[in-house]
Amino acid sequence: MRRFFGFKYPKLSALLIAIFLAYLFFSSDYSAPFISAFNQAGYLGAFIAGCMFTFGFTTPFATGFFILMNPENVLLYAIVGGFGALIFDLVIFKPIDFSS
User: Fold this and answer.
1) Running DSSP on this structure, what letter comes out for residue 55?
2) d(Cα 65, Cα 36) in Å, to the nearest integer?
3) Which pLDDT band holds residue 2 (cuts at 50, 70, 90)?
4) What count of other Cβ atoms lies within 10 Å of the Cβ of residue 37?
5) Confidence of residue 20 (pLDDT cuts 50, 70, 90)
6) Most Cβ neighbours (<10 Å): which of 16, 71, 84, 99?
7) Three-state SS for 9?
8) How far apart (Å, rounded) are the C-alpha atoms in residues 14 and 4?
9) Are the C-beta atoms of residues 68 and 23 closer than 8 Å to each other?
10) What letters, b where the CB count within 10 A reaches 16 and e where it falls short, cover 74-86?
């Protein structure tokens, strides 16, 4: 198996880079308008953040969005986010045939 830039674990390295980029994004002042627009989206924002939990490399960004949201009903936001993750899981795994 050919290694990516000589790294033994390229996917783990990419995940660590995604975590670092999410930290830079959420600690930057330039991202404040984007974060506030995402927060104002309400339940749609929770749905999109839930969809982002499906993919491993966007999970740090989704976690940041959920931390920065100030919902009135936390349980309802969690349910909507979980529904978004469910829908995207079905979209990803539906084309895959698990039968042998």
Assistant:
1) S
2) 10
3) low
4) 10
5) very high
6) 84
7) coil
8) 10
9) no
10) eeebeebbeebbe
Say if residue 49's pLDDT is above 80: yes
Alpha-carbon distances of 85 from 1, 43, 47, 55, 58, rounded to whole Å? 32, 13, 8, 9, 12
Residues 68, 26: contact at Cβ < 8 Å?
Answer: yes
Mean pLDDT of all residues in 67-83: 91
**What's the chain's length in residues?**
100
Long-range contacts of 59-65 (CB under 8 A, 24+ apart): 59/18, 60/18, 60/19, 60/21, 60/22, 60/23, 61/18, 61/22, 61/25, 63/22, 64/22, 64/25, 64/26, 65/35, 65/38
CA distance 61 to 35: 11
